[in-house]
C-alpha cells in the first residue's frame, strides 16, 4: 500500500448469469464429465468519495433474451444500491466492447467513455467481417461509441495510462485486440479488475485460455502482466467468476429480492 495514494472503494455488482459447462469455458475443451460451470456477469464501480468511475456497463433485458442469458437486474438501475444515480456517472471505463461489457451506454447521459483506441479499431475493422470475432459484439453498442466520438464523449488511450492518482489502465489485448484492465489502489493495496483478461480464476491459474480469443499469446502474456500489477494473486478479480461473490465480503446494502449481489473488492477475500 502506498500512503500517498487515495484508497478507492471497488465493488463488483452482478446483474446476470448463465448456466453452462466446463467445455464452454476452456480452449482445450471439456473434462470427461463436462461438469456444470456457470458464468456470472458483473459491472464494477470504483469510487473515491464523491468521484465515481463505472467499469463496464453490462447488457439489458432484450440482449439477455437474444443471447439466452438469465437477466437478474438492470446494472445501471442497480447502482442506486451504492447511492449512485445514472446522471452521476460521469466516467465509464469500457474494458472492451463485447455486448456484456458495453451495453446500456444510452442510460448514462453524462458519461465520458474511456477506451483503448485499439479496441474501437478492432470493433469496426475487417475482423468484424468474421463471425468468430464479431459474435460477442453488438453493432448498436459499437455505433453508440462511434457517435460519442463525434460528440466529444470519448477519451482514447494507446496503451497504459493513469486516469487519476491510484487509478490506472493497462492494455492487455488477447481476448479482444484492445482489451484493457483496471488497476485501482485500495486500502488493501493494488487490486486489478481483470475483466475478460481472465473470465474465471481457473483460466489464469491453470493457464487454460477461454475460447473467445483473438490472440492466444497476448492472452497468456496478459495473465503475467495482470499478476505483476496486483499486490498478490488475491488482488486479481476475474471478470465472470461466481466465486467472486463467495470470496469477498458483501456490501451492507443488497437488492430487495434478497439476493446477495454486491461484493466489496477493497476488502480481503476469504481465499
Ligand atoms: Zn469479452
Ligand atoms: Zn465478458
Alpha carbon gyration radius? 17 Å
Question: What's the domain count?
Answer: 1
Major sheet: 8 strands, mixed
* CATH architecture call: 4-Layer Sandwich
Helix content: 10-25%
* CATH-defined fold name: Metallo-beta-lactamase, Chain A
Q: In DSSP terms, counting alpha (H) and pi (I) runs of 4 or more, how many helices?
A: 8
Rounded to the nearest angstrom, the distance between the terminal CA atoms is 19 Å
CATH class: Alpha Beta
Q: Could you give the order of the helices and strands?
A: EEEHEEHEHHHEEEEEHHEHE
Structural classification: alpha/beta
Please count the beta strands (DSSP E, at least 2 residues each).
Answer: 13
* Global morphology: globular
Within CATH, the superfamily carries the name Ribonuclease Z/Hydroxyacylglutathione hydrolase-like
* Strand composition percent: 25-35%
> Ions, cofactors, ligands: which are bound?
zinc ion
| Low-confidence region ranges | none
Mean pLDDT: 96
How is the secondary structure organized here?
Layout (H helix, E strand, L loop, with lengths): L8 E10 L20 E10 L2 E5 L5 H7 L2 E2 L19 E3 L5 H4 L9 E5 H8 L6 H4 L4 H12 L3 E4 L3 E4 L2 E5 L8 E7 L2 E7 L5 H5 L10 H14 L6 E3 L4 H5 L14 E3 L7
Parallel strand pairs: 3-5, 5-6, 6-7, 11-12
Antiparallel strand pairs: 1-2, 1-4, 1-13, 2-3, 8-9, 9-10, 10-11
Bound molecules: zinc ion (2 copies).
